[in-house]
Amino acid sequence: MGFSQFIIGSIVILLLSCNIYLNKDKLLNLYPKDFSNDTFKLYYFKVNGRAAPARALLSYAKINFEDIFVGQNWQEQKKNNSLFEFGQVPILVHNGKAMSQSKAIYLYLAQLFKLDGKNIDDQYQINSLLNSYDDISRSYSPYAFPKNDEEKNNKEKYKKILVEELKRIFGIYEKRYIKLGTGKYYLGDYFSLADIYLTVYMNVFTKSVGGFQLIKESAPKLADLITRIKNNELKTFFEKYYYD
Predict the structure, then answer these.
(1) Are 44 and 50 a contacting pair, CB within 8 Å?
(2) What pLDDT digit, counting tens, does each position of 101-154 carry?
(3) Which of 6, 96, 139, 150 has the CA that lies 20 to 30 A from 31?
(4) CA distance 138 to 212
(5) CB contact at 8 A, 173 and 203
């Protein structure tokens, strides 16, 4: 081999090495992490509520997690500030590290399982959906969890308010899905936290106000998407961790 060929070969090897280094994160992401030696514990009540998406994420990733129910002694349990730092649930404990706040937990698990989007636009869509929960919750809470006499004595009034708000929000979800291409998944060909949020929470919110029929009427294309996901990616979750 001549000196010039040696130099060219060395340059090629150097360029390849630099390319591998610069793209190491992408290359590593091709191989999913093995979580078989990790421990996951999720603390919540034995209801769907704010823990449902976290359970769905763990179930989809085939994680053998502990689904721990806080019960009648919750008022005493939440005094444990080292675990329940805000005095609230859900709490996720991963390898001994406790994490709080439901949306932060969803995003943590989504990042861990590579379900947090391919780019910043995907991540915006996911975060926007997660934040829309608060818009729905303002109408959902007075109907599902009445706190005063006004709410308790006017159940039908608050049901009507909730139904109208669900129709409005679901319509927004539907328009976005169409704008994104009405693909196999909400973000196209990529299953993500967006699909989990929609499939889980659209079922939770409509359970007592019309059920799946309300979803079909308000967002027919999303209804088809949700049906596919319930029968495939989240089949185990709905069979084992969805609490009616």
Answers:
(1) yes
(2) 999 999 999 999 999 999 999 999 999 999 999 999 999 999 999 999 999 999
(3) 96
(4) 21
(5) no
